[in-house]
Structure formats: structure tokens, C-alpha cells
């Protein structure tokens, strides 16, 4: 677990624990466990100082009561922390990391576990070192005086290693500062040694990593309040800067030989889902979570419609989160102690992950992500198996099957889990996850079958026939769960799974719980997880390292490309085009990367992307690269005006090898999306019927053209494209429920775009929601918004005064003024029908 949360409980105001790691203090043959925390203190004059806090602990540290401050080491100019090789030991990649801490007053040796937690800790310590700049004032560490008499509990007193509490100038039973000198002047730097990194830490920790407010011990119930567990996955070799090509090869070989040093062990997973309909917990959840089953090793519990209030959509916090979290915590199996690994919530969707306390050390790489399509997910590593748990609430109603399918695809494609190494591409739900558990109110139904027929088949237990009419048409057999309503029974609350070595033991609903109109559902699984045999792992690692020692790396890497020129024809606004090619590697392992050209900030133009943009190739291996071209609001205007073209040159660079130059060309079909309002008003014909020179001239035309109308064709009052969409909505959608709140379909947006750009003679054929979304995308794509940027400040100042607001609007350019009045008239029509469309001023 990330024990910086535990250390934070022991700190004073103004002190913040950036990172923590648990290790062993080594003195001769003696090994004593210590918790190391890097603490930052912000000074009044704006600077900051750092110190290492060392703690003893009597058990796995869960709260601040479990640790006792033993020693403080200021991070001064003479502070160094370097990785060393123990005497007589051969360095083996992936083994524990031995580091030596030196200051003018003391020298300590620690053994830290190999993994991401240690890497992050060492990285933060390196950033915290003051550096050698003589212009920077020397740290004084006056804030550390408050800790000098922080006495530990008597039962925690351990034998003190030489050079720690036995240093001169310290008092027995008190925390030692530095080497023990009681005079703070003795802590001033003297220039001894070189720090790990000369860059000063001047960046705050991301907001998402800030610790939560402390809860009372009765609320905690000895649960781990943390989102990250200590890494134990030795097979996950990290790409630290001190490593390089060699260790990337080691990582690749270890992954290939995983079966040589791992074995399959079954663990019991409880997966539960509950749509609580905005209610607070009114009954004990043990009938759902723990009765009649053995204590699971891992709990994955999801909720939907946690809070249906309007406030839940605007504010992050909701009291329902704490209420249901407490109810779940109290309902877990009483025969085991559980640690909370992660809680993630998006509006009314919440997902909780718990693990048995004895398994907590084997959970690693915990990442949580929320999507904008009604889903949240937690991805983590358990031993050597990657697991992704998804909780989603898909679109309701039988006829919305297509939208449910699209929501599912969006969740899969848009949710990304960023890796600890920022140079590595993010992971998706389906990529590199060994096990996927998907739960929630999925809203898939039995369709094309009347109510009585469905009930009859249920009574006859003819599930195979029902399965044939199931919208989701899963590939795995499930026990059906239905809710009794007037319409056809709906199999909405589901638990799905994908992966190897998975056995489903039970799957049932709990009809006795009456809090919601939905019933909680749970499924028990035995999941085979790959567990590392330490001895076999070490032997495999040594064998790989020995084989790599024999490799000759002097040759220059060389690759062949299946394609070197790329042409994208008829590129359209917000329509993805993809061209691919294959890199075939020769006999030498190599890193490849697309690099920036001179004086350019990126390796490609904004509308282009290479996936992956960097990577590693083993000998005689290959990889497929996809070049993705996508024009959006930020790039469309310059392509319309001709200031930019679909032209670029990619530079593919091989580490220690040559560069390959890949030209990219194509043509862009101008669109009303991304065109200025006044430009469209002067286009009486569809944009694709005009010559490119005319489009360029009109796009580059200054916004104030009223005084020069004699030289141009008589303009329209508003863009015809805007009129077409608003008129369509006025005629068809003024009474449409959830207008502007429910997204449209991608295929229909493309049809609407082509209709506007080409001036099709047929009637516009699309759903109301798709036209509404196209209207919003059109307004969002305007390079100068309806209310011009120059008028923003005045608009905000007089937003509460109708007369003053009217005066500001009157100063807008003529075409912008017309569009504003036209849109306001349309919104007024929508409000006249608010009884049916449920729209109000706040929503609009």
C-alpha cells in the first residue's frame, strides 16, 4: 500500500509526505524494518525544504498509531542517496534495490523492494535534493525542531543501530535529526558529496494524489485507506533511466518465459452489482455480500444510480458515497479482514475494490479511470495477473439497443489507464488485461417476445430459447435474473467476464433486499492467478542475463518498412482515416521513435498521430504502425483557408541507427464545421461547390466586412447551415425529451455534415438527438464564437443587468448579432414546450 497516507497522520500542519516506501535498515547481519517517508515543508518566503522521516512499526502500517518516528535525515546539500551493490553479491536485474544514504554526519544502508513504489520514491528524493547552485539559500530546517521530542511508545523501542540514535548529541527515546547533532547549525551543508539530481523540486504533487481527510477510527475499521499497494510483481521490469536497451530485452524475455517461473493458484472473487435508485442504505447488506459463502479473497462491488439529485451532477462529493461505502464495509464477510484498495465514483456510478489483508502485498499498479459514457473501471495487478473491473450503467429502454452497443464501444475505446512510466502508451480495458470483470445495470433486454411468452419460458426453465432473444447474445451461459414489471421481464443487472482459468461458481439475485426497485446481484468466481515462484524466477532471470551477456550489440540496427509514402484521400471533418505499415527488424534489437524535426514542437502536425509512436523490437520481429489522421475544431479552420495542408514528413529514428523519412500527403474536403460565421454568410452555395480559392479568400476575410459589402455578393443574414439544423429541430424536436442532453450517433453526424457541405437535395434524415449534437459541434467549431472573445469580459460584468447585456450584444458584428438573436428565439421556443421536453433555463 502507499503508506504515505499513514505517515501523513503523524505530521504537523504544513508538512506533506510526498512518497513512502517500506524497506530494511542493514547493519552488518542485522536487518530491521523501517518505513521511509519523504516529507516536504513549504516555507513562508515561498521556498520548500525536504527531509527523510524514518519510522519503526509493529505490524503492517494501516494508521498513524501503527508507526513511531525513529529518525529524521534532512535533505541538505551534502545529502546523497545512491544505489550500491552489496559486497560479494552479483547484481541481478529485478532483485531488491540496495541504496546507501550519506550525509556529513551519518551513513545508512537500506534494502528496498524492486518495483514501481521504490522507483517513484527514489525519483522524488532525487528531485528534492537542493543542488549545487551557490545562489540558492542554504536550507535551515528550523521546522524539524517540533519533532525532536516525539517519543515512541515503550513497546516499540528496538535495538538502535550504530550511527542512528546512538549518535552524539541525541537523547534516548527521542527522534534523531540528521546524524544526531543537537545544534541546527551542524545540519548546514558543507558541500560534501554529489546529490542524485541537481534539479530542485518545484512542482506540487498532482491534486489526484492528495490524501483524503482523516476519518475517525470507528469509520476506518482497520481498513487500508489507500489506492496503491506495494509492488510485488517481479516480472514487471520497469524502464528506469539507469536501465536501458538491455533491461528492456530482459523484460521482454521474462514475459515470454512467464510460465517457467509461475504457477496457477485459484482465488475466490466476489463480484456484485446493485442499482440503488438514489436511496440510502436501509438494511444490512450481509445477505448479499457474505451470507452462505466462504470468505472471498477479493470483493468487487458496484453501484448504479447512487445519487439522483441535481447536486450530484454538479458537485463531486455526495453523502451517499460515504453511506454506501460504510454499508458495504460492514457487510463484508466477518471471517476475514479486508483492505480497501480503491473507491472510484462518477456521479451515480461507484465501484469498490477490497482484498483480504494477507493478499494486500500482492496487489500492484492500481489505476482507476472514469468515462463519459456511464462507466468507471479499476485496473490492477494481482500477483502476476492483470485484472480490469468495469462498472457501467448503459442506456435504458428496449429500443435503445444500438445506443447501448455504442456506449459499450465508447467505454472500451476511451477509457485509458496511464502507466507509471510516462513514455509508455496508456492501456485500455481490453489491452493486456488477463481477466475482465464487467458488472452493472447494462439494460440489455429480451426483445421480440411478448410478456406471457417470456414468463412461460422462465417457468419451464427454457433459458436456451430466451438466450436466442437476448440483445447482448453473450458467448457464455448465465443464470437469468429478472425483475417483475408490467412490461416484458428485463434482464438488466448483469455480471460478465472474459479470460482464462475462470470458473463461475454461482450467480444469483437477492430478492429479500427491498431498498430499491432493482435487486442486488452477485457472482462468485474461482480465478486462476499466476503466482511467482521466487526460486524459479531467480533462475530464469539469471539464465536470461547470462544469455544477454553473450550478445554482440556493436552492430547498427537496421529495419525494413513495408510502406514509405502515405496518401490520405478526401479527408473529412471529424472522420478518422487510418493508414498502416509494418516495421520488420533485422538481427539487432532496437528502439524506434518518431522524433521532432528541427524547430518543431511535435513529431507530426496536430491532425496526425502515429500509434505507437515509439517502441522496442527484438531480432527478427515486426510491429504494425497505424498513422491516424483526424481533423477537429482546432485544425479545421486553417485547412479550410489553405494556411495548412495535408502535408507532413515523419522522421522515424532508430536508436544507434539511421533515420527514415516518411512523407504524408492528401487532400482535405472543406467543411462548414470550422468556418467563421461571416464566411458562411457570404457562401450562398454549399461549401464544396465553391472553388478552393474562393473558400480561402472568404475564410481569411476580416470579421468586420459591413463597410465593404459592395465588393461582395449580397450575404445571407445567418449561415444557411445553421438555419437548416435549427429549422429541423424547430419542426421536429421542440417537444423532444432530453434534447441536447443525450448524444447522437456517429454515423448520423457524418450524414448531417455531408448534407450541409454538399447541399444534398434529399430531406435531412437523422434523429433529433443527432441533429442537436451536430448543432452543438457546429457552434463549438467556430473559430470566433457567437459572442466574440473581445466581448467576453463585458458580458460577464453585466450578466445580471438586462439593459447593459442588451447593449453589449448590440456591439457584436452584424452576423454574430443575427446568429445570437436567432438562437435565442429558438431557445425561447424550447422553453415554451418545457412541460414536454423537460428543459429549463439552467439546462439550456
UniProtKB/TrEMBL annotation:
InterPro entries in UniProt: Endo/exonu/phosph_ase_sf (IPR036691), Ig-like_fold (IPR013783), INPP5B_PH_dom (IPR031896), IP5 (IPR046985), IPPc (IPR000300), OCRL-1_2_ASH (IPR048869), OCRL1/INPP5B_INPP5c (IPR037793), Rho_GTPase_activation_prot (IPR008936)
Q: Where in the sequence does UniProt note compositional bias of the Polar residues kind?
A: 210-224
State where it is primarily located. cytoplasm
Q: Which GO terms describe its cellular component?
A: cytosol; early endosome membrane; endoplasmic reticulum-Golgi intermediate compartment; phagocytic vesicle membrane
Query: GO terms for molecular function, please?
Result: inositol-1,4,5-trisphosphate 5-phosphatase activity; metal ion binding; phosphatidylinositol-4,5-bisphosphate 5-phosphatase activity
Domain Rho-GAP: where? 710-844
**Reaction(s) this enzyme catalyzes, per UniProt:** a 1,2-diacyl-sn-glycero-3-phospho-(1D-myo-inositol-4,5-bisphosphate) + H2O = a 1,2-diacyl-sn-glycero-3-phospho-(1D-myo-inositol 4-phosphate) + phosphate
Q: Where in the cell is it found?
A: Cytoplasm, Cytosol; Cytoplasmic vesicle, Phagosome membrane; Early endosome membrane; Endoplasmic reticulum-Golgi intermediate compartment
Membrane topology value? Peripheral membrane protein
Keywords from the named record: Cytoplasm, Cytoplasmic vesicle, Endosome, Hydrolase, Lipid metabolism, Lipoprotein, Magnesium, Membrane, Metal-binding, Methylation, Prenylation
Q: Is the keyword Ribonucleoprotein in the record?
A: no
- Family per record: Belongs to the inositol 1,4,5-trisphosphate 5-phosphatase type II family.
Q: What's the stated role of this polypeptide?
A: Hydrolyzes phosphatidylinositol 4,5-bisphosphate (PtIns(4,5)P2) and the signaling molecule phosphatidylinositol 1,4,5-trisphosphate (PtIns(1,4,5)P3), and thereby modulates cellular signaling events.
What is the protein's name according to its record?
Answer: Type II inositol 1,4,5-trisphosphate 5-phosphatase
Amino acid at each position: 500500500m502507499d503508506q504515505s497516507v499513514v505517515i501523513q497522520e503523524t505530521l504537523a500542519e504544513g508538512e506533506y509526505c510526498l512518497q513512502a516506501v517500506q524497506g530494511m535498515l542493514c547493519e552488518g547481519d542485522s536487518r530491521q524494518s523501517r518505513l521511509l517517508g519523504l516529507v516536504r515543508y513549504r516555507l513562508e518566503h515561498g521556498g520548500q525544504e525536504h527531509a527523510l522521516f524514518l519510522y519503526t512499526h509493529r505490524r503492517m502500517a494501516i494508521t498513524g498509531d501503527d508507526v513511531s518516528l525513529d529518525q529524521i535525515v534532512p535533505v541538505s546539500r551534502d545529502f546523497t542517496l545512491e544505489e550500491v551493490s552489496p559486497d560479494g553479491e552479483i547484481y541481478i536485474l529485478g532483485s531488491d534495490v540496495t541504496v546507501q544514504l550519506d550525509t556529513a554526519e551519518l551513513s545508512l544502508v537500506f534494502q528496498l523492494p524492486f518495483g514501481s513504489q521504490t522507483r517513484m520514491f527514489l525519483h522524488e528524493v532525487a528531485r528534492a535534493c537542493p543542488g549545487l547552485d551557490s545562489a540558492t539559500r542554504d536550507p535551515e530546517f528550523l521546522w524539524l525542531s517540533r519533532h525532536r521530542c516525539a517519543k515512541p511508545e515503550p513497546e516499540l523501542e528496538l535495538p538502535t543501530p550504530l550511527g542512528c540514535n546512538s549518535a552524539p548529541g541525541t537523547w534516548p527515546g527521542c527522534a534523531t535529526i540528521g546524524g544526531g547533532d543537537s545544534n541546527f547549525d551542524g545540519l548546514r551543508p558543507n558541500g560534501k558529496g554529489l546529490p542524485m539530481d541537481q534539479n530542485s523540486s518545484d512542482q506540487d504533487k498532482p491534486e489526484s494524489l492528495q490524501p483524503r481527510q482523516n476519518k475517525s477510527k470507528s469509520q476506518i475499521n482497520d481498513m487500508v485507506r489507500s489506492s496503491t499497494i506495494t509492488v510485488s510483481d517481479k516480472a514487471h521490469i520497469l524502464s528506469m533511466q539507469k536501465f536501458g536497451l538491455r533491461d528492456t530485452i530482459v523484460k521482454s524475455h521474462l514475459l515470454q518465459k512467464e510460465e517457467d517461473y509461475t504457477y496457477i493458484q485459484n482465488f475466490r472473487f466476489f463480484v456484485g452489482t446493485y442499482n440503488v435508485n438514489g436511496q440510502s442504505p436501509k438494511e444490512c447488506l450481509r445477505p448479499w455480500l457474505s451470507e452462505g459463502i466462504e470468505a472471498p479473497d477479493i470483493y468487487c462491488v458496484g453501484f448504479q444510480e447512487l445519487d439522483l439529485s441535481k447536486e450530484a451532477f454538479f458537485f463531486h462529493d455526495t453523502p451517499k458515497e460515504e453511506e454506501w461505502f460504510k454499508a458495504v464495509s460492514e457487510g463484508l464477510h466477518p471471517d476475514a479482514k479486508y483492505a480497501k484498495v480503491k473507491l472510484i465514483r462518477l456521479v451515480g456510478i461507484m465501484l469498490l475494490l477490497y482484498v483480504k489483508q494477507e493478499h494486500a502485498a500482492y496487489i500492484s499498479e492500481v489505476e482507476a479511470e472514469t468515462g463519459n459514457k456511464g462507466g468507471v473501471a479499476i485496473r490492477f495487478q494481482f500477483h502476476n495477473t492483470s485484472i480490469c473491473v468495469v462498472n457501467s450503467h448503459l442506456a435504458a429502454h428496449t429500443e435503445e439497443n444500438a445506443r447501448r452497443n455504442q456506449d459499450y464501444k465508447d467505454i472500451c475505446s476511451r477509457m485509458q489507464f496511464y502507466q507509471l512510466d510516462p513514455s509508455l502508451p496508456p492501456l485500455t480495458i481490453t489491452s493486456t488485461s488477463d481477466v475482465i470483470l464487467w458488472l452493472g445495470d447494462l439494460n440489455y433486454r429480451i426483445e421480440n417476445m411478448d410478456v406471457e411468452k417470456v414468463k412461460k419460458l422462465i417457468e419451464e426453465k427454457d433459458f436456451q430459447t430466451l438466450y436466442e432473444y437476448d440483445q447482448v447474445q453473450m458467448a457464455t451461459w448465465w443464470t437469468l435474473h429478472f425483475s417483475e414489471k408490467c412490461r416484458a421481464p428485463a434482464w438488466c443487472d448483469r455480471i460478465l467476464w472474459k479470460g482464462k482459468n475462470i470458473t463461475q461458481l454461482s450467480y444469483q439475485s437477492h430478492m429479500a433486499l427491498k431498498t430499491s426497485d432493482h435487486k442486488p446481484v452477485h457472482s462468485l468466481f474461482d480465478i486462476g492467478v499466476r503466482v511467482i515462484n521466487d526460486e524459479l524466477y531467480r533462475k530464469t532471470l539469471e539464465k536470461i542475463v547470462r544469455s544477454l551477456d553473450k550478445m554482440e550489440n556493436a552492430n547498427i540496427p537496421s529495419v525494413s518498412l513495408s510502406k514509405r509514402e502515405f496518401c490520405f484521400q478526401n479527408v473529412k471533418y471529424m472522420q478518422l482515416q487510418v493508414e498502416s505499415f509494418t516495421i520488420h527488424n533485422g538481427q539487432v534489437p532496437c528502439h524506434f521513435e518518431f522524433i521532432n524535426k528541427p524547430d518543431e514542437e511535435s513529431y507530426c502536425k496536430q491532425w496526425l498521430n502515429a500509434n505507437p509512436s515509439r517502441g522496442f523490437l527484438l531480432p527478427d520481429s515486426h510491429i504494425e504502425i497505424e498513422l491516424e489522421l483526424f481533423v477537429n475544431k482546432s485544425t479545421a479552420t486553417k485547412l479550410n483557408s489553405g494556411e495548412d495542408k495535408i502535408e507532413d514528413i515523419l522522421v522515424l529514428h532508430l536508436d544507434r541507427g539511421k533515420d527514415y523519412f516518411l512523407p504524408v500527403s492528401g487532400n482535405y474536403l472543406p467543411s462548414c464545421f470550422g468556418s467563421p460565421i461571416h464566411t458562411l454568410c457570404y457562401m450562398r452555395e454549399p461549401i464544396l461547390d465553391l472553388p478552393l480559392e474562393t473558400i480561402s479568400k472568404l475564410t481569411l476575410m476580416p470579421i468586420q466586412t459591413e463597410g465593404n459589402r459592395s465588393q461582395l455578393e449580397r450575404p445571407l443574414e445567418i449561415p444557411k447551415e445553421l438555419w437548416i439544423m435549427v429549422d429541423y429541430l424547430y419542426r421536429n424536436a421542440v417537444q423532444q425529451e432530453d434534447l441536447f442532453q443525450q448524444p447522437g450517433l456517429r454515423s448520423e453526424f457524418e450524414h448531417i455534415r455531408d448534407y450541409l457541405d454538399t447541399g444534398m437535395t434529399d430531406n435531412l434524415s437523422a434523429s433529433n438527438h443527432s441533429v442537436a449534437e451536430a448543432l452543438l459541434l457546429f457552434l463549438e467549431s467556430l473559430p470566433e464564437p457567437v459572442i466574440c472573445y473581445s466581448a467576453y469580459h463585458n458580458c460577464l460584468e453585466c450578466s445580471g443587468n438586462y439593459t447593459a447585456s442588451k447593449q453589449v450584444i448590440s456591439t457584436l458584428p452584424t452576423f454574430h448579432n443575427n446568429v445570437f438573436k436567432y438562437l435565442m428565439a429558438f431557445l425561447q421556443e424550447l422553453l415554451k414546450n418545457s412541460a414536454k421536453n423537460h428543459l429549463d433555463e439552467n439546462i439550456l
